[in-house]
């Protein structure tokens, strides 16, 4: 992990984007200037983030962040980037709940201006648990915090999910349902199956991922529970914290209408992903942080809803993450950053964890 080359995240020139953005903004705020353009070190490989300052006396905010749909030339991670959908979700969450989301400003669906659709929002100030190197490694602010401080952050984070799920009117999220028939959970799984087929089109298929889909079919929850607005990418690496309290909840591109456990399973598993990797490299990590039993108990305490079928939902989270990782690996192959292995499952970093889940031995 420490020496592997970080996959490229963009093929765009941030300074050129800044110049084009200035021209676009001039039609909305004549005379506005874009300054201090930068790409954050944590920029992802899906939609891209550009940070900048807006210089104009009538600017609604000064510190801004721009989310730009992925460049197709960069072998995008997802087949579709619906920026209007993400912008709408953020505005609705701000309208209906007290979950802290950045103030969403302008939306541009015409790709002419910057080469892809985008939206501008207020930049949140604070600190984010790092992904590279993961916060489970030594040498970052969260790992260096006390047990009590991490417990405070954990409880506050579960509180974000509780307030979102309880406070948002589910009917307002109906537009997030994928096309098709069946329950929200069934439609969600089928959309992930379609995503997997897109990832492996013309490329080696993953026996492990396909066995995980088979496991889901064989262990479908008898009671799926009520559908709520799910954040989708519910992990602490997508929250800006002020101290140990959430100041801004980011990355709503995976928002969905589905069971509460979609978010809970993702929160649990994405921490386990980092924790398992850290242990495999000889460090203890944070074994008492974001534990599944603690998250389930805290969520039930806050909402009165006891999480159900969590082995299903944590495996589903690991499966979804495996499909994304396979796409990222094939993206690295495309750019010549890694070699093609004989076994495509070797491209999945958490192969051992997902195999153990399919066997039923991971949580034992």
Automatic annotation (TrEMBL):
SUPFAM superfamilies to which the protein is assigned, alphabetical: Protein kinase-like (PK-like)
Gene3D superfamilies to which the protein is assigned, alphabetical: 3.90.1200.10, Phosphorylase Kinase, domain 1 (3.30.200.20)
Signal peptide: none
Domain spans labelled Aminoglycoside phosphotransferase: 82-277
Any Pfam family hit: APH
Entries under InterPro entries matching the protein: ACAD10_11_N (IPR041726), AGP_Transferase (IPR051678), Aminoglycoside_PTrfase (IPR002575), Kinase-like_dom_sf (IPR011009)
The protein's name in its UniProt record: Phosphotransferase family protein
Organism: Streptomyces noboritoensis
Organism lineage string: Bacteria, Bacillati, Actinomycetota, Actinomycetes, Kitasatosporales
């Amino acid at each position: 992990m420490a020496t592997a080359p970080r996959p490229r995240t963009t093929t765009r020139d941030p300074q050129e984007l800044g110049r084009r953005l200035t021209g676009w903004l001039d039609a909305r705020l004549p005379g506005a200037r874009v300054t201090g353009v930068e790409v954050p070190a944590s920029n992802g490989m899906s939609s891209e983030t550009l940070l900048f300052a807006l210089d104009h006396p009538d600017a609604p905010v000064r510190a801004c962040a721009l989310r730009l749909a992925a460049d197709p030339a960069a072998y995008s991670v997802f087949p579709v980037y619906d920026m209007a959908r993400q912008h709408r979700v953020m505005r609705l969450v701000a309208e209906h709940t007290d979950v802290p989301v950045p103030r969403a400003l302008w939306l541009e669906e015409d790709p002419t201006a910057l080469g892809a659709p985008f939206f501008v929002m207020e930049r949140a100030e604070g600190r984010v648990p790092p992904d590279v190197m993961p916060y489970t490694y030594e040498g970052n602010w969260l790992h260096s915090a006390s047990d009590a401080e991490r417990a405070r952050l954990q409880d506050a984070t579960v509180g974000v999910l509780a307030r979102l799920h309880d406070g948002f009117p589910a009917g307002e999220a109906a537009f997030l349902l994928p096309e098709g028939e069946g329950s929200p959970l069934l439609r969600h799984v089928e959309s992930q199956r379609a995503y997997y087929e897109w990832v492996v089109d013309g490329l080696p298929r993953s026996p492990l991922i396909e066995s995980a889909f088979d496991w889901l079919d064989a262990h479908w929850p008898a009671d799926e529970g009520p559908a709520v607005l799910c954040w989708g990418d519910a992990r602490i690496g997508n929250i800006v914290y002020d101290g140990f309290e959430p100041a801004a909840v980011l990355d709503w591109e995976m928002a969905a209408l589905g069971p509460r456990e979609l978010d809970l399973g993702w929160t649990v598993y994405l921490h386990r992903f980092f924790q398992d990797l850290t242990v495999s490299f000889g460090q203890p990590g944070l074994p008492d942080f974001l534990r599944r039993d603690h998250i389930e108990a805290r969520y039930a305490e806050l909402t009165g809803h006891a999480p159900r079928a969590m082995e299903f939902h944590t495996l589903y989270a690991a499966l979804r993450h495996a499909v994304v990782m396979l796409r990222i690996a094939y993206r690295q192959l495309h750019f010549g950053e890694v070699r093609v292995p004989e076994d495509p499952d070797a491209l999945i970093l958490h192969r051992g964890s997902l195999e153990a889940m399919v066997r039923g031995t991971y949580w034992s």
